Amino acid sequence: MARFSSVALVLVFLITACGGGGGDSTGSDSGGVTDASSTVKITSTNPEDGATAVALTVSGSRTHVYVWFDDLIDTTTLTSSTGFTLDGGSGSIAGAVTTTTVSGSKTEMLYIPTSTLSTSTLHTATVASTVKDTGGASRTAAYSWTFTTE
User: Fold this and answer.
1) Counted domains in the chain
2) Which tens digit of pLDDT belongs to each residue from 42-92?
3) Over the range 67-98, which residues count as b (16 or more CB within 10 Å of their CB) and which as e?
4) In a domain, 102, yes or no
5) CB 3.0-4.6 Å disulfide test: which of 18, 28, 109, 130 passes with 67?
6) What is the CA 98 to chain-centroid distance, rounded?
7) What does pTM read for this prediction?
């Protein structure tokens, strides 16, 4: 019985220390994103807003930028020329956007810069207000966040 009590106590401690098993402190799984848009919401980004010392390469590949949406996105509105931009210290950074459907009802966007990002540079990523879901609803505001490379 003492062994069972010890195991139960450890499990209670781990669950409490981890925040109860999911989501952030608001009870949603937002990944820390506060998105002002009332439609076509962004749920998470990587790198996160305010991240510092972001690696220039990961596993030998250039750092990519990810955005997760809570809806299926009309991919014609989310391209590197119309729906997403990445700026560095000296202007816009060329790259390509790809999208993937996740769980049948959400969209993951991946931005692959054509060259390695500059070191020790503040970058600003922006999803335009013109991005729409497959039902035709537009974002009500652009969403921008920043991160700094190592």
Assistant:
1) 1
2) 999 999 999 999 999 888 888 999 999 999 999 999 999 889 999 998 899
3) bbbbbbbbbebbebeebbbbbeeeeebebebe
4) yes
5) 109
6) 14
7) 0.76
Spatial distance between the Cα atoms of 22 and 146, rounded to a whole number of angstroms: 25
Asked if 98 contacts 112 with a C-beta cutoff of 8 angstroms, the reply is yes
Token pair recorded at residue 85: 């931009």
- Rounded to 5°, angle at Cα 95 from 100 and 107: 15
Query: Does residue 145 fall inside a structural domain?
Result: yes
CATH code at position 103: 2.60.40.1220
Q: Which two tokens stand for residue 12?
A: 């209670």
One-letter amino acid at 5 equals: S
- Distance, first Cα to last Cα, the chain: 52
Give the rounded distance of the alpha carbon of 120 from its chain centre. 21
Is residue 69 one of the residues assigned to a domain?
Answer: yes
